[in-house]
Structures are given as structure tokens and as C-alpha cells.
Amino acid sequence: MAQGMIDTAAPANPAISVEALLRDDLAHGDAMIGTIAPIMRHLLANDEHSVFSDEIVAAVRGMFAHVAAQVLDELATAAGMPDARDHSAETLAGLIEGFVAHTGFLGHVHALALEWQLTQRLQARLSLDPVLSPLLQALIASSDAQVATTAMALLAAQARFAQNQRRMQLPLDELPGDLLHSALVGLRGLGGDDPELQDHVAAAERAIRSRYDEGRSRLGLISRLVMGMGAGATAALAVTHAGAGMFLSALALASGQDREMAILATNEAQVARLALALRAAGMKAASIEEQFLAFHPEVTLPQGFEQLGADQAAALLARSATYPGG
């Protein structure tokens, strides 16, 4: 799409032609999205194909292994063996296989790996701090004590996210509520027909749930801050000001997409989706061009893009693929 967006001549009816161009590019992007989950599952399940694995596949595999290990650690503690950390490879593999088979779980973990890759790229190219963005710094200095406290909590959570991603880890308390439930469903499956083991499983689940608070997770804190900004949330739609994490959440909220899809939109193969998402969020063409300078400086918006309404962009997105589409 990069060349198409750059080279397209001005059409007789720009609004209609731009919509057709973007719809076509979005369809190509949709076709790619439909292949993500099955390909990722294949790579995760077949070590002999590791030659095709990149840092994203390795990170996804590592995060799923960490989730499974935490579940088994909790089960060992409930069984009175808190130091038992040498878990059966077969049991670990079985849990991971179940998690990977869950399309939403796979999509979320994959998206986190993509977000971290994006964060590193922005740091390398634009010197954007992966933990403390200018917007977060401003929120920490807010005169509203609640906003400042939440922003400080996010600063700590973002630092943990960076550390966890470097280690290819994903703490249970950072999972969205529905995916934590999915992880616990996997735990329940370990109980089998053994009443004593079932009791240990139930105790482990209670312990995990008792400590869980989605609102204190990194994504929960970001959502609270962005939604609390009201009309000022447009400030979070400038990635160099907000940082990748807040930008992606703000884009998802403002464009009516899942956060996973907003993350995927920043991929170089999804530039039409990014342009439409920013337009659906209400941004003007000039502001969208500024974001493209940060993400894809070689890409130019098609002539007539400014004639495309936010409602038209939102309608195109609504008819496109969902993520990960597997």
C-alpha cells in the first residue's frame, strides 16, 4: 500500500475513490490477519520449524510458558509443596497447548509481543522512553491527586512490563479478566478424578483470584487514565507524546476497535487500517500525517484522504476483519 498511497493520482471524485482505495487495501490486510493465528499456532507447536521463528514467536512461546508455570507453581503451593518448581514437561506442554488453542488468548499474547517490538523501535528511531512518556510525566505532575497517584502506579506497571517483556514473561495479574479465567479453566483440567488433587486445584484457584485486581494491571491503569482525560484524551493519540502503550489504548477506545487490532494496525502491512483508525478517532489529515511520520515515515496519505469522513472510516473498519481472526 505504501506505493499506492504515495503514487495515486488525484481522482475526479476524491471521497469515493479514496474510500475505494482504502477498502481494497483493508481487504488485503484482512486476508493477512486471517492467517495469523493458524501460522502462529503451527510455529509454536513445532520446534523443528524454529528456523522460521523470530523474536515475536519466541516471545509468545515464552509468555505462554510463564503463564503455565505460574499456574503450576500455585498448585504446588496449594498441595503443600511451595518449593516444587520442577514441573512435568508434559503437564506444562498440555497447559500451553490449551492456551494457544484459545484464539483470544493467542491474540492477546501476540499483541503484547508486537507492542513491545513497537516500543523498542520507537525508542531506537525517535528516542522515545519505553517507560516514561511526556504525557505520563505530565499526568504524574497533575494537581489532581487521584490522577497523579494512578499515573505513578502506571509508571511502575510500565517499568514491570518492559522488564517482563525482556524476560519473555507474563504475570497472571496482568491478564485481562476473561483470559485469567481461561488460564484457570486450564488449571481445573488438571484435577482429573482425584478428589485430593481437585481440592488442591480449587485452593490454587481461590488464591489466584483473591490477589487479582484487573484495575491495578497496566492495561487497567492506562484505560482509567485515558478515559479520565475526557476530551483531553486526544493528547494520547500522539504516539511521541503518549508513548506506545497509552497511544494504542487511546486509539482502540477512540476508533471502536479491540486493543489487539489497534496494535496490529501499526504493522507496516496494515497502513490503511492505521489511517482509517486515526480518522475514525476524529483526527484531521494533518495530524494523521504526523503519526505516520512516527510509524511509517516513507508512507504518504492518498490524495483526497481529507475528504473521507470519520463516520466513513469507522464504517470501513467495522466491516473489516477482527483479530486474530483464527
| Class of secondary structure makeup | mainly alpha
Distance between the termini: 24 Å
Overall mean pLDDT score?
89
Helix content: 55-70%
Question: What overall form do the CA principal axes indicate?
Answer: globular
Describe what you observe in this structure.
- This protein is mainly α and 326 residues long.
- It has one domain (2-318).
- It is 68% helix and 0% strand.
- The chain is built from 15 helices and no strands.
- The chain has helices at residues 2-7, 14-45, 55-78, 89-101, 103-126, 134-140, 145-166, 177-188, 195-211, 218-228, 239-255, 259-264, 271-280, 285-295, 310-318.
- It is globular, with a radius of gyration of 21 Å.
Question: Main traits of this protein?
Answer:
globular, 326 residues
Short description:
By secondary structure, the protein is mainly α. Helices cover 68% and strands 0% of the residues. The protein is built from 15 helices and no strands.
Summarize the topology.
Elements: H1 2-7, H2 14-45, H3 55-78, H4 89-101, H5 103-126, H6 134-140, H7 145-166, H8 177-188, H9 195-211, H10 218-228, H11 239-255, H12 259-264, H13 271-280, H14 285-295, H15 310-318
Helix pairs in contact: 2-13, 2-15, 3-4, 3-5, 3-9, 5-11, 6-7, 7-10, 10-11, 11-13, 13-15
